[in-house]
Structures are given as structure tokens and as C-alpha cells.
Amino acid sequence: MAPEFAPPPASAPAAPDLKMTLESPLVLQSGVTLSRVTLAYQTYGTLNAARTNCVLVCHALTGNQYLAGVHPATGKRGWWDDLVGPGKVIDTDRFFVVCANVLGGCMGSTGPKEIDPGAGKPWGLRFPVITIRDMVQAQAKLLDYLGVEKLFCVTGGSMGAMQVLEWASRYPTRVFAAVPIAGSYRHSAQNIAFHEVGRQAIMADPDWSHGNYLEVDKIPKRGLAVARMAAHITYLSEAALHRKFGRRLQDRETLTYGFDADFQVESYLRHQGYTFVDRFDANSYLYITRAMDYFDLAQENGGVLANAFKGTPVRYCLISFSSDWLFPTEESRAIVRALNAVAANVSFVEVESDKGHDAFLLDEPEFHQTLQGFIDGSAEICGLPPRLAKGPRA
Amino acid sequence: MAPEFAPPPASAPAAPDLKMTLESPLVLQSGVTLSRVTLAYQTYGTLNAARTNCVLVCHALTGNQYLAGVHPATGKRGWWDDLVGPGKVIDTDRFFVVCANVLGGCMGSTGPKEIDPGAGKPWGLRFPVITIRDMVQAQAKLLDYLGVEKLFCVTGGSMGAMQVLEWASRYPTRVFAAVPIAGSYRHSAQNIAFHEVGRQAIMADPDWSHGNYLEVDKIPKRGLAVARMAAHITYLSEAALHRKFGRRLQDRETLTYGFDADFQVESYLRHQGYTFVDRFDANSYLYITRAMDYFDLAQENGGVLANAFKGTPVRYCLISFSSDWLFPTEESRAIVRALNAVAANVSFVEVESDKGHDAFLLDEPEFHQTLQGFIDGSAEICGLPPRLAKGPRA
After folding, report:
1. B59: exposed, middle or buried (C-beta count within 10 Å: 0-12, 13-18, 19+)?
2. Chain B residues within an 8 Å CB radius of A263
3. Which helix (H) or strand (E) holds B349?
4. How many CB atoms sit inside 10 A of residue A179's CB?
5. How far is A34 from chain B (nearest CA, A)?
6. pLDDT tens digits, B115-124
7. pLDDT tens track for B194-222
8. What are the structural domains of chain A?
9. Cβ separation of B226 and A200 shorter than 8 Å?
């Protein structure tokens, strides 16, 4: 495959706001052609001389490219800092880790918030609807640009898992190992319904201004906050909510008989909603939820999921969480059955956890051990040097 | 107990808009005194001479007093018409069935939509926060008015079950049998969270006008619709949504790559939201969800649920549904355990159903048979005449 660009130096330093702009237009799944697509991305670790140690991490709905370490501007830890770093499960002393903000996102990649070069103003709703396949196609171009022809591993949770499945099924020769975590091969009716509530909440906010809020200098904060609150409940298990909050009151001894946040869980939820609007774009939320809703790897393969994996050389490891009701274990099992049907190399672990869907973002030892074991085993088979047996992790 | 009113004729005919207004003020759980409380109610069947055949049905969050038959104005079937009527499970040939719109409701009972007599304008947010106990206290006054000192049975689903539990624990000598269906003794953190999302959606709508929308001739339709959509998902099981809609498209062959309702489930949800605003008051939604959130029968009894039932003479039958994730079976089991701890007369059935929480409103044969068996058995013990063994039901 001929890269469209001269590759950058093999050792790309971690820095804010790395960007890559495609010279050729991207033909989207909808048929629309999108020109001058930019992906904002981060890299961690060093690409080896053979260019065989790249791990691509795909982020979730509201995730971003800042995986590890501390973001220089926000001061926040990366969303997978527990897992990615020197000596960690995804060991940046061994692997060259890449994570890009998805197409349609709002952290520097081309999306509805960015300026439409043709119109000289933000895309807003004129931005074309994108799909998981489009996101993955753009990532493949980024890897061309980075000089990575084949990934050692592609992984991610939730919407990240959808991208992993799309990657491994569409580019089987470019992936050695694939780890879809807490994901599904198609978005369920219940999940589409929750997304639709979020979109309706955003669109119900008059400040959304039919999608043109950036042009009229408004932000649909209330609608986006409500969308986030509804979604946030689905990320946790009932047990986790009960353990964290129960019916405990917030900074008061007794009920106030009013509509303030009497309960801690209300206060927490409001906080989740109203801090989200400072870091996320409402139109991006519409586009990315739509991409997830549209994802159906079976339907794309003649209605038979196994067709997506026929003859695949990819080594798969699927991970689900027992209390995840947004992407329940059964959804991962369906993928495992399809992979078994084509005699693929697949392992599967349901991690016992009461933390719900969010467990893939949390310090969950059995999950980390599972990923560690699979990565180390795959690295050995792939001919990569073993993990250094050294003292305490950095 | 001296009724505050002269009782009406024992046989009260079914008619729209029966109303009872309390002469004495109601002292609410908050300590606030509410004057001239009106309850709008319906009755079905005839009170027997001994006044021993009354069944009180308590409605759910968005329910109303129109249980059975066809509403003369709306033309809609009553929400429990499958269960209540001549020859049906709650047989109006045998029982005198009463259902009142709850205090705080919007179907004729005193609530935030009604005129505050002191101010000459709608209550809005000046209406005091009410509780399940307040609702039940008002119902007890209604029964005084109707000349019913002791209920043969009190039953209801969801918030109705909360009222049933409050009734049986607070007025144990006024209840012979109690059937809380798909309920809980306290609202869980997850359920408070979902309610809070609904309230935030309503309050985020500028047309809500800080609760004064009726005064400025507006309706917070968009906010209320979003609240309803989010809540509606919780009433169904994932299996039911999958069975009813799956990923089927709405009136189209292919995805449109846009934000229209491509999927049937989206279309259904939008319909649920936007028809709801025509029949429900946004402020009532705030007040009634708050009443549910505040309900905690254990906390009201020194933190020990069993204390709520000590020495109870009431015969209990608890019913839950296997796919109900809003009020899961475990919540009913906790009540059964508390009743067992005080050696109460209790039976419990978890009905196998994939219909989710809404199953209590649907034609679910095992549920109907359970209720039928318990009612017939209790009627026999209570000395009421047996069900007529006749041909097909009316």
C-alpha cells in the first residue's frame, strides 16, 4: 500500500495537537466526499525500526486522543492512564501507541464544530453524517501517514470496540491482534433509544438554533447537559449507583421538600451534566451517537455476522463486564460465536465487576490482567521482545 | 372513626369527574397545611350493604382515575380495563372499586396545575412538595367520605405499589388485603437519577418559565417530551424493545444519513414523548416524581423495614416481573423478607415476562391468574360471596 504522505520520523514525541490532514478527499459510507479531512491525534512511545509495535487505541463516544499522562493544557489525566504508560499494561516502553480523535469529533479532528472551508463558517448540520467505517477509514490513512502498515494491536471500549471490530473485519491484513472491550457488533434498540433521547434533548434546547449555535454565539448547554445526564446513568450499574450514593442526602440532614438536589445522586448527575458542556460540542454529540446507532456489522455483511470474519488471520480477545447493561455480555458472546463459526483465533473473558459499562475506564484488576496476558502472549507470537521483568511499575 | 362528611349513597355510579373536597385542611408530611384539598375519583361497581367489598386501586406516576371501561370524553380505554370490570379479575359485579387521582396530580385533584384559592392563579411551584404518605392520607379521607371504613383490598403497580405499602403499614386496621405490584419500599439511587433527568429536562425548557408557564400561556412541551422519552425506555425491557423494534427502519428502505427517525424505535419514542404533553402537566410531573424519590418506608420506620409491618393483620401478596429493571424482583423480595421477619401473612410471585416494568399494565396471563387467585381466596376468608361460576366473561 502506497502511503499518501512521506512518513514522519519513526519516533514521534507525545505533544498536544498533533494533526494530519489528508491530501485526497475521503469518500464516506453515505457516498458524500469530504475534502481536507484532518485528524488530531496523540502518540506515546516509539515506533520500532521494523514498524511492528504499533497499538491503535480507539476512543469512546465522549473520549479523546489524550490517553495517558497529564494533558498539558487541562491538567487532566488521560482517560486510560491506568493502562497506558511506561511499564503499564499497554507499555509505552515497548509499544508505539496511537490514538486519534474520531472523524466527527470535537477535539481537533474534522467535525461539525470545525470550519467548513467551502463556506468559511462552522459546518454545523451541513456536516455529512459519518459512520464507524468512516472513522476507521480515516484512522487507516493516519497510519499510512505514520508509516505503520500493520498494527500489532487495535483496542478500545464501547464505541472504541465498534471501531476495533470494523478495523479487524475491513483490514484483516493490517491487524495482528484485536481487543474489542464492552462492545457490540450492532447498536441495540434500547441503546438507539437512549441516544435518541439525548439528541432530542439537545435539539429541544432553543439555543441549539437548528444546529447553528456557533454562528449566533450560543451554546445549547441545558440540552447537552440533560443528554449527558441520561447517558451517564447508563454507564453505571444500579449496584454502583447504590454503593456510591444510595439514598444519602447532599450536604443536609433532612429532606428539604423542594426541587434542589437533596440526594447525592442528583448532585452528582447535575455535576456530570454541567461540566460536560464545557468539554464537548453538542453537534458532535449528535453525529457520533448517530454513527454508533448506524453500526451493524452483520447487516453490512449480508445479515450474517460470521461473514465479517471469514478467513480472518486476526487474533481476537473479547472482554465484557458482568454488570454492563448498556453493552451486556451477551453482545460480546454473539461476536465470539460468529468468530467460532469461522474457526477464528478468539478468547473471551467476562470480567466480574459491579461497576457497569464504565468499568472499561476504571482500575479493574481482572480486566487489566486479562488485557496484559493477551498482549504479552500476542507480542511473543508476533516476535516482539518480551516485557522487561523489572521492579515496581513506573 | 367519625367521617367528616355524610356518606354518599352506597351505590355511586361511574361517571366522569366525581369530586370530593375536604372540609378540614390536610397537614402534609412536610408540615405544610393545605386547605380545600379536592380529589377527583372514579368508582366502579356497587358498595355492598355491609360496606366490606371496596377495592382501592392506586395509580402510577402518569396514571389517572379512569381504570375501566371507555372514558366518555377521550374515548380511551381505562388503563386497567383488562383487569377491572364485570366478570374480570377485579370483578365490578362483586367489588366496589375506587380510584382517585393522586394529590399533586393533574386530572382534577388538587395539584400545581389547579388554582391556588389564596392567590387566584395556578399554584405552580408554590404548591407544597407532597409525599406518598400525603397521597394516601387524602385517599383515606375520600374513603371516609364514601363511607368505607375498611378496604377489602388495596392494590396498584409502580408508584401505586408504594401507596399500597404506605396504606397497609399506616392504616393496618383499615386494610384486609394488600397487593403491591412491581414496586419498592424505597426509590433506588438509579430511579432517583432517572427522575432527576426528567425534572432537569422540564426545567431546561425556557417555556417552563420557572414553573409559571400557565400564567404566561406557555407549555414546556419539548422538555416534558424529553422527560417522557427517557422514562419510557425504563418502562420496557431490552428484550421487549428488541422484539418490538429491533433495528428495523421506519417507512424507508435504507438509512438516510440524517437525524430523522430512521429507526422505528426512534419514531415510537418521539410519538410517546409528544403525545404525553397533551395529557400531562409538567409541574405535576415534577411533584409526583419527587414524591416517589422521597418514599422510603424503612427510613420512616427507624431504618428497619420490618418495623413498618410489626403485628400487621394485613394479608399481603407481592407480585414482580422478571424483566422489570426499574423495580426489579429483588426490591419485592426485600419487602417479603421484612414481612416474613414479623411473621406476616404474605405470598409472593415473580411473574416470568419479557415485557419489563410495563407488564403490570398489560395482558399478562400469569399475572392476572395470580391476582385472581389471591383476590378470590381473600374474599372467601373475608366472608364475601364467591365469584359467580358462569359462562364467558363479559
Report:
1. buried
2. 189, 192, 196, 293
3. strand B345-351
4. 28
5. 14
6. 999 999 999 9
7. 999 999 999 999 999 999 999 999 999 99
8. 18-185+297-382 (3.40.50.1820), 191-289 (1.10.1740.110)
9. yes
